[in-house]
Amino acid sequence: AEEIDAIKDFIAAPLQEIQRIDLEIANLTKRRQELTNLVEPYQALLSPVRRISPEILQAIFVECLPEHSLHPLMSAYEEPMILGRICSRWRQIAYGTAELWRSIHIPIPSADMGDDEGVLAELRLKGMKEWLERSGALPLSLSIFASVPISYDTASDFSLDNACGHIFSFLEAL
């Protein structure tokens, strides 16, 4: 029993030191997390990509345009539109880079669209106006697709003049 008491006396001080260290570690871990939470949002601001000049980003954005297609679609998931979805700085740079907007594919809605398609056509028209405004004074390259309106019953009813008139009236709205 004397031996056990001697061992207990011998380890008592180290055990108290371990408890003190564990408490200190817990306090330090809590403080570390508080500091990490404070610093993390600011670290993103120091990211190297944020230090790239707008001119370099513009050049990179232009190189991002797809090579396989001369006329980009007006899709939020494709270039150049997707570049504006990254952050406000990229949106500002992309929207201000006229070269990104120098070509466009314009699908012309059919003349006999219903109410839902009419709303879609209005949104498409608004998007095209914005696209063309962003192109600035650069020459434009357009790709136009117009389907034959369903209201033509036979091929003899189809008139190239009628189809072109519909296309031009749509483009005049721009």
Layout of helices and strands, plus pairs?
Elements lengths: L1 H44 L8 H11 L23 H8 L7 E6 L6 H20 L6 E6 L13 H13 L2
Parallel strand pairs: 1-2
Compact description:
Helix content is 55%, strand content 7%.
Write structural notes for this entry.
The protein is mainly α and 174 residues long. It is 55% helix and 7% strand. The chain contains 5 helices and 2 strands. The chain has helices at residues 2-45, 54-64, 88-95, 115-134, 160-172; strands at residues 103-108, 141-146. It has a two-stranded parallel ribbon. Helix 4 links the parallel strand 1 (103-108) and strand 2 (141-146). The termini are far apart. The relative contact order is 0.08. Mean pLDDT is 82; it is low at 154-158.
Keywords, separated by commas or semicolons:
two-stranded parallel ribbon, 2 strands, mainly alpha, single chain, 174 residues
Residues in β-strands, percent: 5-15%
Helix content: 55-70%
Mean pLDDT: 82
Low-confidence stretches: 154-158
Number of continuous helical runs? 5
The first-to-last residue Cα distance is 99 Å
Sheet with the most strands, sense and barrel status: 2 strands, parallel
Strand order of the largest sheet: 1-2
Shape: rod-shaped
The computed structural class is mainly alpha
